[in-house]
Specification:
Strand content: 5-15%
Number of strands: 14
CATH superfamily of the domain at 682-843: Beta Polymerase, domain 2
Oligomer: single chain
CATH architecture of the domain at 682-843: 2-Layer Sandwich
Structural class: mainly alpha
Largest sheet: 5 strands, mixed
CATH topology of the domain at 682-843: Beta Polymerase, domain 2
Length: about 1000
């Protein structure tokens, strides 16, 4: 509310004062503030964060004070400082308004214009319970003994604590109402921490008197502050994290600590000892030696990070100092631990995952661009560089930012900007907590404009000429959150680039050792190599080197969140060098944020994709967003297949035709794999797309070879020729590492000699197989005809009549089973369909298969399990042949097809997943059993594909715990937070599926 010109003496209306309650005029009349003598009071009242709340509280206070109201009113008319403190307090806090109304005389405490010292607060708290220092020859130093115990203690301590807290709150909000000095954020945090120290000192004195009423406390006991209290940057309403150390750590010491916590929880705030060794399962009190032993042997990285904030706060301060001196040196070597980076990253992810998605934009503490982002980054830099630089051994976030800038680890402007953003968010947090003295870190929802306007006024945000206070608040929240979101690029990576470039002559540069330490802490296992890659990227031609230097901080931040930033950075260097003459590449990265982020995620996750991208660089353009979503999702697989076939058909030379098909395949593999890694395609879509590409390449190759043969012969082909897909190709369920299992079939044309036609067809099949299988740096194009009649000892190509005769007379159980996945794939479509009609009566036998054939299939499966599992492989985690793996599911589905497909036409399907759906619809298995089999097939296929994407080569064995498993989990799905969770899920799903397999396939 803007004050009117001084010459104006008209009493303002309630509306002009910002009073919207209908009772406001009557309330002003009750106070007697309706004449020109009250104008100053009224304009001050209008500037309270909630003028209506302040007015109602004043009316109640007048009533409660009775005759003493005149003393307060007279002071309010003359003392602007008191007016600012009182009006600001009762307009900002319902809780403190109620506190004053319960004890109307406590307003007199606000007449003091200076904040009490830590010693004064401690004395005030101890005085509330008549506490005096422990005395006697065996008295423990630093402990006090209260004169008051029992049920009356908590109300007395609560009242005294609220009185002391009120003094700070009133001074903190006074500037909102009157032109009082603004209390700096750092002062507020220190004062609240000092008050917490004083409060727990008093609670400890009561605990000592309660547990040891007739004799001195037998133990030296120190209370160590942790977290925000330890850093002396406490909130108005916050947990106070503590750790207890005692000599000896005996039962009385534990009882005193427990009693202190009980009193503190009831009177002041939640006292939390969960940061102690072993957490809530560990002993509440330990000796100093026990603490040291634990941190040397068992402590995790996050526990050392927590120790950054440790300081003695109550009890035996000398023992607390010994604790600090013994443990803090361990903090500064934590970054050398082998698991430092993964533990740190996992902890950050857990914090983010705990925030519901719909609250992440409103969470001041844990959301995007939040307080925790700043604190986490600052602590990480302290741990990295504090090992060699004692100047970073500070506890508060603001002090640490200053120290990091002073010592050249971050830019001074970055430090100042982040400090300002951090303090702004903490100010909002403090104001939200003051309102009801409740622990909260969440902004009001956007639709609650009145609550947001109150917050804006409480935070002293005024209209700026373009926006009202609400608009200013929203703009400031967005601006500061956006600035914090860039903190990783600014804090971690900009100094690295400044150290190897000359873009800014004034920039402070990290030493080579500091740069290597920082890269190691960011997850690089070979930081020296990473630094070399950065130098090489930034040292290119002047314009490109400059663009790289500007891009790299953001790119490195994206890489830092991938499983293998070392490989990702190397891959980015290789891609950059391969595209050195492509002017569009860096421009796209600079101008399209989605391309840069997605490309780094892919490069840092996969050894399979980088080579493809270097040979098919245009695929990188697909990382952008189109009008209908990400371009990587791509067109319909059938359209892609037609494009491959038509493109290769332009060439007469089979080698050139196949080269064209290979090039388009390479582009498609890069697209499919990238979309898969980024979670844009599901398992079914990936398998369908890969199978379609394979079919198109087969078609292209076959057509080009036949075309060349006809040109060489000077006559049409003597036979029609078809390729039948088998196995996963026939089921349209190929993975990245799958071969193409096929059968070749021909049919001599009328008037042609059958022997010559078959000889020609064999030459075609051999040439196609040879051309596709030629050595190449692309993922292999291996054509496998091993499922043909008589296996590898049989002829490569047979006529349709020969296949018919063989299958009717000689087909073995495994051959019949293999035919279940036969599907026309390439070549003459009419011949392929005729082949399928021929084999239908074999693979879908009348009346199902005999019990003898079932036993043979089961024996064959047992032999496969015993003989084909690679030596040393873990059967629990082998995706193909392991327990509940792909072979188990597929053999079970195929046995059901052989038994029931003649009566259930919907089982005439080559796809495992689609057949499972048909099995459920026909009620051949329960919905629960089908669900377990389906989940296992999808999980194993996803894992198998992820293994190829991560390692760059086919493999079926899921690795044990470690970096590789973490990478596989990352690629296998965003739902897995780490490798252990992924592995547990895999084992659980496949174990349940194996039980179904044993019951259904095994006949148990």
């Amino acid at each position: 509310m803007v004050r009117p010109p001084a010459a104006r003496s008209v009493v303002p209306s309630a509306g002009r004062l910002g009073l919207v309650e209908s009772s406001a005029p009557a309330d002003l009349q009750t106070l007697g503030w309706v004449d020109t003598d009250s104008i100053e009071l009224l304009w001050s009242l209008s500037r309270a964060p909630d003028a209506d709340l302040a007015l109602k509280t004043l009316v109640k206070l007048q009533e409660n004070l009775g005759a003493d109201w005149s003393e307060l009113e007279a002071l309010l008319r003359t003392d602007k400082s008191l007016r600012g403190r009182l009006f600001g307090l009762i307009g900002a806090s319902i809780a403190f308004g109620d506190h004053i109304l319960l004890d109307p005389g406590c307003w007199k405490l606000l007449h003091n214009t200076s904040l009490p010292t830590p010693e004064a607060m401690r004395d005030a708290m101890l005085d509330a319970v008549g506490a005096t220092p422990e005395t006697g020859p065996n008295a423990s130093p630093g402990l006090y003994r209260a004169a008051v115990t029992g049920p009356t203690v908590v109300p007395v301590l609560r009242k005294r604590y609220r009185d002391q807290l009120m003094l700070l709150a009133a001074a903190d909000v006074a500037a909102v109402v009157e032109n009082e000095p603004v209390v700096p954020y750092a002062t507020v945090g220190r004062h609240l921490s000092d008050l917490a120290d004083a409060a727990l000192t008093a609670a400890l004195s009561v605990a000592v008197a309660t547990v040891c009423p007739d004799e001195p406390c037998p133990s030296r006991l120190a209370v160590i502050a942790m977290g925000k209290c330890g850093a002396r940057e406490l909130n108005y309403v916050s947990d106070v994290d503590v750790i207890f150390v005692a000599e000896p750590a005996d039962t009385p010491a534990s009882r005193i600590a427990s009693e202190m916590m009980r009193i503190g929880n009831a009177a002041f705030f939640e006292v939390d000892a969960a940061l102690r060794p072993e957490g809530k399962q560990g002993a509440l009190v330990r000796s100093l030696d026990s603490h040291i032993a634990y941190y040397k042997r068992w402590a995790k990285t996050w526990e050392f990070q927590a120790l950054l904030k440790a300081r003695p706060m109550a009890g035996d301060m000398e023992l607390g100092k010994q604790y600090q001196d013994a443990l803090l040196p361990m903090v500064w070597t934590a970054s050398e631990r082998e698991d430092f980076v993964p533990e740190t990253q996992a902890m950050r992810r857990r914090v983010e995952d705990n925030v519901p998605e719909d609250l992440r934009e409103r969470e001041l503490k844990l959301g995007r661009g939040s307080l925790r982002d700043v604190e986490f980054a600052v602590q990480l830099l302290q741990l990295v560089h504090g090992r060699t630089d004692d100047a970073l051994h500070v506890t508060s976030t603001v002090d640490a930012l200053t120290a990091l800038a002073t010592r050249g680890y971050i830019g001074r402007d970055d430090s100042a900007n982040l400090t300002a953003s951090y303090e702004f968010l903490r100010l909002l947090e403090h104001r939200l907590q003051l309102q009801k003295l409740k622990r909260t870190h969440t902004l009001p929802p956007p639709e609650d404009e009145e609550a947001l306007r109150w917050l804006a006024r409480a935070a002293h945000l005024r209209p700026d000429g373009r926006n009202d206070s609400l608009g200013v608040l929203n703009a400031e929240i967005k601006r500061n959150a956006h600035r914090i979101r860039r903190l990783h690029a600014k804090l971690f990576y900009r100094p690295l680039l400044d150290s190897i470039t000359k873009l800014d002559k004034e920039a402070l540069r990290l030493s080579p050792d500091a740069a290597i330490r920082q890269l190691a802490a960011l997850g690089y296992l070979a930081p020296e190599n990473a630094l070399g890659h950065l130098k090489a990227l930034a040292a290119g031609p002047e314009r490109k080197g400059r663009i790289q230097a500007l891009l790299l901080p953001t790119l490195l931040e994206y890489l830092g969140d991938t499983p293998d930033p070392d490989a990702g950075l190397l891959a980015y260097r290789r891609v950059s060098e391969a595209l050195n003459d492509q002017v569009w590449f860096l421009r796209e990265l600079r101008d399209e944020g989605a391309i840069a982020q997605r490309l780094m995620i892919v490069l840092g996750s996969s050894a399979y994709v980088p080579d493809l991208l270097m040979k098919a660089p245009e695929a990188i353009r697909l990382f952008a967003d189109g009008p209908n979503g990400p371009l990587l999702i791509g067109p319909n697989p059938a359209d892609v297949a037609r494009g491959i076939v038509s493109s290769s058909a332009r060439y007469d030379d089979p080698k050139r035709a196949i080269a064209a098909a290979r090039a388009l395949r390479r582009h498609e593999l890069a697209r499919i794999a990238s979309a898969d890694i980024l979670g844009m395609l599901d398992v079914r879509q990936v398998c369908r797309a890969l199978s379609s590409v394979w079919a198109a390449v087969l078609n292209s190759s076959l057509q080009s070879v036949i075309k060349a043969s006809e040109a060489e012969r000077g006559a049409p082909a003597p036979a029609t020729f078809a390729v039948i897909g088998m196995g996963r190709l026939g089921g349209w369920e190929l993975g990245y590492g799958s071969d193409a299992d096929v059968l070749f079939v021909c049919d001599p044309k009328e008037g042609e000699d059958e022997a010559q036609a078959v000889k020609w067809a064999n030459s075609i099949a051999e040439k196609v197989t040879k051309l596709l299988g030629a050595p190449s740096t692309d993922p292999p194009l291996q054509v496998d005809a091993g499922l043909r009649p008589e296996g590898r000892n049989g002829p490569l190509v047979r006529t349709l009549a020969a296949y018919d005769a063989y299958y009717r007379q000689w087909a073995q159980a495994w051959e019949v089973q293999a035919l279940l996945r036969a599907h026309q794939m390439a070549g003459d479509e009419e011949l392929g369909i005729r082949f399928l009609h021929v084999i239908d009566k074999i693979r879908y036998p009348e009346g199902g298969i005999s019990p003898t054939a079932v036993r043979e299939i089961r024996r064959m499966k047992a032999r496969v399990d015993a003989e084909r599992l690679p030596r040393g492989a873990d059967p629990a985690t082998h995706t193909k042949l392991g327990r509940g793996g792909l072979a188990d599911i597929e053999w079970t589905v195929q046995l059901i097809q052989l038994q029931h497909a003649r009566e259930v036409p919907s089982l005439h399907n080559t796809s495992t997943l689609e057949t499972l759906t048909a099995i459920e619809a026909a009620e051949l298995l329960s919905a629960a059993d089908v669900s377990l089999l389906r989940d296992a097939w999808l999980t194993a296929t996803k894992a198998r594909n992820a293994l190829v994407l991560v390692r760059g080569k086919p493999t079926d064995q899921i690795p044990g715990p470690g970096r590789l498993l973490t990478a596989v989990a990352h690629v296998a799905g965003a739902e897995y937070r780490d490798g252990g969770e992924f592995l547990d899920h895999y084992l659980r799903v496949t174990r349940r599926a194996k039980a179904v397999v044993e019951r259904v396939f095994g006949g148990e």
